[in-house]
């Protein structure tokens, strides 16, 4: 556990939500998400030991821009990574990590 503390030294999370006293969702900054994924399995294991009976999920804090989005200067278009669909797909990937989604039904 001490080596986990060394790896978590530079990492932080932005929020924690408790859902129905059964699970905890930990929101981490998007730029630190890859670093959290390196230690996620051990971190989730330790947190589930500390909070028995609760499932722990680590997800990245992402921003969704509406269709009417345009920047103040330059009229730049909305980045694809900020669309509702892409944010929801990334959230689903975060929830099922470390497994990968192979196929999806579309209709």
A few lines on this structure:
The chain has 107 residues and is an alpha+beta fold. The protein has helices at 2-7, 33-50, 84-96, and strands at residues 15-19, 23-29, 55-61.
Describe this structure in words.
- The protein has 107 residues and is an alpha+beta fold.
- Helix content is 35%, strand content 18%.
- It is built from 3 helices and 3 strands; from the N terminus they run H-E-E-H-E-H.
- It has helices spanning 2-7, 33-50, 84-96; strands at 15-19, 23-29, 55-61.
- It has a 3-stranded mixed sheet with strand order 1-2-3.
- Strand 1 and strand 2 form a beta hairpin.
- The radius of gyration is 17 Å and the shape is globular.
- It starts with a helix and ends in an 11-residue tail after the last helix.
- The model has no long low-confidence stretch (mean pLDDT 85).
Write out the strand line-up for the largest beta sheet, numbering strands in chain order: 1-2-3
Please report the total strand number as a whole number.
Answer: 3
β-sheet strand percentage:
15-25%
Helical residue percent band: 25-40%
Termini Cα gap: 45 Å
- Return residue spans where pLDDT drops below 50 for at least 5 consecutive residues: none
Roughly how many Å is the radius of gyration?
17 Å
Biggest pleated-sheet summary: 3 strands, mixed
Number of helices: 3
Determine the structural class based on helices, strands and strand pairing. Answer: alpha+beta
Shape: globular
Question: Element order, helices and strands?
Answer: HEEHEH
Mean pLDDT: 85
């Amino acid at each position: 556990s001490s080596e986990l503390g060394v790896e978590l030294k530079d990492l932080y999370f932005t929020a924690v939500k408790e859902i129905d006293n059964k699970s905890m969702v930990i929101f981490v900054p998007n730029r630190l998400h890859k670093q959290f994924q390196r230690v996620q399995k051990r971190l989730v294991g330790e947190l589930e030991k500390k909070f028995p009976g609760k499932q722990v999920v680590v997800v990245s804090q992402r921003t969704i821009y509406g269709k009417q989005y345009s920047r103040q200067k330059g009229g730049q278009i909305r980045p694809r990574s900020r669309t509702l669909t892409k944010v929801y797909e990334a959230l689903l990937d975060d929830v099922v990590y470390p497994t990968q989604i192979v196929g999806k039904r579309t209709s």
